[in-house]
Design brief:
The chain is mostly helical and 116 residues long. It has five helices and no strands.
Length: 116
Amino acid sequence: MKKLFLSIACTLLLHVGLQAQETPHKYSSFPFNTQSLKEIGCSAEQIKKIAEIRKTVMDERKKVNDDAAMTDRDKKLEQRKLIDKSKLQMMEVLTDEQKQKVEEFNKKAKEEKSSR
């Protein structure tokens, strides 16, 4: 009986694991990664500038996270500010056409999220 139960449990776990691998990641907003930037027609120079912005904000977020003097709530608020600031900076690098594509992506992601 135990063997049967374990076999069924293992089969279910394997099936769920395989499904998870087949399902592409759903972003809640435009990811600003290299692949996505190429898909909206960014040049190598634009991608480089955005990568620099992302690195800077990640370094700043790490500093905030490591700041023992801040409360968890303050850390979250400060990190949210950094994320919002970096999104604005990255959008400034894009052309109007690319900005439109990002906005369409975000609108679609928001609609999918609200329909769940």
